[in-house]
Design brief:
Layout: H1 4-8, H2 20-26, H3 30-41, E1 47-49, E2 54-56, E3 58-60, E4 67-69, E5 75-76, H4 91-103, H5 110-117, H6 121-132, E6 146-154, E7 170-177, E8 182-186, H7 192-202, E9 208-212, E10 234-238, H8 253-270, H9 275-289, H10 298-311
Parallel strand pairs: 6-9, 9-10
Antiparallel strand pairs: 1-2, 3-4, 4-5, 6-7, 7-8
Helix pairs in contact: 4-10, 5-6
Length: 312
């Protein structure tokens, strides 16, 4: 039985807690959400007017998702170029979906959003697909100096013929910094031809890479950078096939812990994921994992992506 002290224990530091009550206080309606997007895109409160060709203060236009130049009346539209553009769904519903996505470790289903907001399942699914499109970190550079790499199979459904068949599943590979960030990619296969380019792109030279004894990793020591120079990776292996999982600091427990998180979400929340959308789900899990020290404020990191992608 839990003691009173254990019941009151919080795992998230006070400065990183952002509850549903906090969310509703900051974003009580669509107008407050629109104002937030506007301030993210033009943080100094002054916006360049296309007609005046000068920085001007803009004021909200009643009944429209627009702000008007205080001098000439020309409109700007904060939602233009964002995932919210042309959407008829309440902005608060969008924000709430992103809040829930950032507040869970294993993901949130479109069905849950449907239940909580009243939108249709099709709308909820489309919202999540759009939000996931913001979370990719394709050019993330893992700075090491120590990383782990591993591959597994996720997605799809197991066929009923045998309990252990991998048919209809997709190979994925992940590289993680110890006590740091992760990158995960869906791959066509688990061969060196697919794995080694991933290392070259995301791991800085001279890093130490820990893997299992899979033959595909044999080429790590001879990888060259794009400039043709030796990357000089140090490669250490742990022999899982012999029942050895830790030998001193040689292990792949960190990346395997990430796979455990992904698979719990895939099976427990999403149930099955097809090849077409698998990478976007991996991006979602990676985005949260890379910001796990931000507590419930991951929601604000997702919102920043909305404005950033619009600027890009």
């Amino acid at each position: 039985m839990r003691t009173r002290k254990q019941k009151q224990r919080q795992t998230i530091p006070a400065e990183l807690r952002y509850t549903v009550a906090d969310f509703n206080l900051e974003f009580p309606d669509d107008d407050s959400c629109l104002k937030y997007v506007k301030e993210q895109r033009w943080p100094d409160g002054v916006t360049r007017c296309d007609k005046c060709k000068q920085d001007r203060k803009h004021h909200r236009v009643s009944g429209r998702t627009a702000y008007a130049c205080g001098f000439c009346g020309t409109h700007i539209y904060p939602l233009a170029g964002t995932i919210f553009e042309k959407s008829t769904t309440s902005l608060k519903h969008w924000f709430y979906a992103m809040y829930l996505m950032g507040s869970t470790r294993c993901g949130i289903s479109a069905k849950q959003i449907q239940r909580e907001t009243g939108v249709t399942y099709k709308t909820a699914w489309r919202m999540f697909r759009q939000v996931r499109s913001l979370l990719s970190e394709q050019d993330l550079q893992l700075e090491g100096p120590t990383v782990e790499m591993d591959e597994t199979y996720v997605g799809g459904k197991r066929r009923l013929a045998t309990a252990h068949t991998l048919a209809n599943k997709t190979p994925v590979a992940g590289i993680v910094e110890r006590r740091g960030r992760v990158i995960a990619r869906a791959l066509p296969n688990r061969k060196g031809s697919a794995l080694l380019p991933m290392i070259r792109k995301h791991v800085v030279p001279k890093s130490t890479i820990y893997t299992d004894e899979a033959y595909a990793y044999e080429g790590i020591k001879v990888i060259r950078t794009r400039d043709g120079e030796r990357a000089n990776y140090r490669h250490r292996t742990i022999k899982h096939g012999s029942g050895v999982y830790v030998r001193g600091d040689i292990h792949t427990n960190t990346i395997e812990g990430f796979w455990s998180l992904v698979k719990r979400g895939m099976h427990g929340v999403y149930h099955s994921v097809g090849d077409k959308y698998l990478q976007s789900y991996l991006d979602e899990f990676s985005f949260r994992y890379n910001r796990r020290d931000q507590g419930n404020m991951i929601f604000k990191a997702i919102l920043q992506q909305v404005s950033q992608r619009a600027l890009d």
